[in-house]
C-alpha cells in the first residue's frame, strides 16, 4: 500500500450523470486497497458543517456537570454524552468525550415501543442544537445512501442491493467527538484519543477538523489520514467487509490529538437494519451457517423480530 489515500470527486455520483460509474469504480478500487478514501464535492454545505462545529464546541466548553445532564445513562437512553476515559479500545481507555445521536424513530416503531430504542437527548440549553444536528444527520443519510449505491455497483450488484437487503431502515449513528489537548504533566499524552480499532458497521463518513491525528494501519506501519479542506474521510466497516466476502477491507485506525487545542471530529456510522443478518453476497455456504445461528435466537428476540417485520411491511406498504 502506498501512503496516498485517494480523494474521489463524487459530484457526478450525486448528480446521477454519466460519470457516476467511473466514480463507483474509483470507490471500489479504494475499498479493496485501503478501505479508506476521501470524498470531495459531496454537497454538504460549509455553512451547515460550521454550524455543527460551533454548536459542538459550545457544548464541550460547558462544565462536566452540565454535560452530564444528558449523560447516556439517563433513563438508560444509550444516546447522549459520555466523558473522557470512559470508553475503551484494545489499547486502553480513550482520551476523548463523545455525544451520540441516533435516528428519531416514531413512537409506534416496535423497537421504541418495546423499550429497546430510546429517544435522543439534545442539550436544550444550546439554541438551535436539535434542529442543526437533525439537519446534518439527514444530509449524512442522503449522502450515505448515494455512496452505498455506488459501493453496490462497484461490487457488480444492483444499485439497490443494500437498500433491499439491509438499509431500508438503517441503524445510523452520528457522534460529535471532542479530543482535548493532552496534559503532558498528567501523562495524558500516553493515551490514545481513540485506540486502534475497526468500525463495525457498513460505512463511516467522517468530518474531521484541521488538527490532524487520524492514522490508518498499513501492514505494520501507520499512515496519516491528514485533514484535507472540503473533504470527508470515508471508511469501510466490518459488516460491509463481510458482505463483500472480504474483498473490501475494514482497516484499523486510531487517533491522537497532536494539537495544543481541542480536536473535533464528527463520524457518521451507517449500519444495517436492526434485524439484518449480515452475510457475504456471493457465499451460500456462509449463509447456511448463519441461518443455523438464527435458530438459537431466544423466544423474546424472535417475537420482537416478527413484530418488527410486520411493522416494516406496514411502513413500506
Ligand atoms: O476522530 C476520528 O478522526 C476518528 C474517530 C473514529 O475512528 C471512531 O469514532 O470510530
Ligand atoms: Fe473508527
UniProtKB/TrEMBL annotation:
Keywords: Iron, Metal-binding, Oxidoreductase
Keyword field contains Oxidoreductase: yes
SUPFAM superfamilies: Clavaminate synthase-like
Domain Fe2OG dioxygenase, first and last residues per copy: 170-272
Keyword Oxidoreductase: yes
Pfam families from the UniProt entry: 2OG-FeII_Oxy, DIOX_N
GO MF terms, alphabetically ordered: metal ion binding; oxidoreductase activity
Family according to the record: Belongs to the iron/ascorbate-dependent oxidoreductase family.
PANTHER family tied to this protein: 2-OXOGLUTARATE (2OG) AND FE(II)-DEPENDENT OXYGENASE SUPERFAMILY PROTEIN-RELATED
Official protein name in the record: Iron/ascorbate oxidoreductase
Source organism (scientific name): Pseudolycoriella hygida
Amino acid at each position: 500500500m502506498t501512503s496516498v489515500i485517494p480523494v474521489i470527486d463524487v459530484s457526478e455520483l450525486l448528480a446521477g450523470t454519466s460519470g457516476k460509474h467511473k466514480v463507483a469504480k474509483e470507490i471500489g478500487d479504494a475499498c479493496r486497497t485501503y478501505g479508506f478514501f476521501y470524498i470531495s464535492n459531496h454537497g454538504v454545505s460549509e455553512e451547515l458543517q460550521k454550524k455543527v462545529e460551533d454548536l459542538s464546541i459550545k457544548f464541550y466548553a460547558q462544565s462536566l456537570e452540565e454535560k452530564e445532564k444528558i449523560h447516556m445513562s439517563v433513563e438508560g437512553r444509550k444516546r447522549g454524552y459520555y466523558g473522557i476515559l470512559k470508553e475503551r479500545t484494545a489499547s486502553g481507555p480513550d482520551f476523548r468525550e463523545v455525544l451520540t445521536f441516533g435516528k428519531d424513530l416514531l413512537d409506534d416503531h416496535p423497537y421504541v415501543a418495546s423499550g429497546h430504542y430510546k429517544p435522543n437527548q439534545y442539550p436544550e440549553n444550546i439554541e438551535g442544537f436539535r434542529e442543526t444536528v437533525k439537519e446534518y444527520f439527514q444530509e449524512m443519510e442522503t449522502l450515505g445512501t448515494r455512496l452505498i449505491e455506488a459501493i453496490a455497483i462497484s461490487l457488480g450488484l444492483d444499485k439497490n442491493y443494500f437498500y433491499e437487503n439491509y438499509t431500508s431502515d438503517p441503524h445510523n449513528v452520528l457522534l460529535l467527538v471532542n479530543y482535548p489537548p493532552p496534559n503532558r504533566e498528567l501523562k495524558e499524552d500516553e493515551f490514545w484519543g481513540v485506540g486502534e480499532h475497526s468500525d463495525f458497521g457498513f460505512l463511516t463518513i467522517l468530518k474531521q477538523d484541521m488538527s490532524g491525528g487520524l492514522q490508518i494501519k498499513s501492514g505494520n506501519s501507520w499512515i496519516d489520514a491528514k485533514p484535507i479542506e472540503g473533504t470527508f474521510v470515508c471508511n469501510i466497516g466490518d459488516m460491509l467487509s463481510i458482505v463483500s466476502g472480504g474483498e473490501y477491507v475494514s482497516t484499523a485506525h486510531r487517533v491522537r490529538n497532536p494539537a495544543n487545542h481541542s480536536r473535533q471530529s464528527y463520524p457518521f456510522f451507517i449500519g444495517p437494519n436492526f434485524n439484518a443478518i449480515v452475510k457475504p453476497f456471493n457465499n451460500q455456504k456462509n449463509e447456511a451457517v448463519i441461518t443455523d445461528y438464527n435458530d438459537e435466537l431466544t423466544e423474546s428476540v424472535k417475537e420482537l423480530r416478527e413484530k418488527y417485520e410486520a411493522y416494516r411491511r406496514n411502513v413500506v406498504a
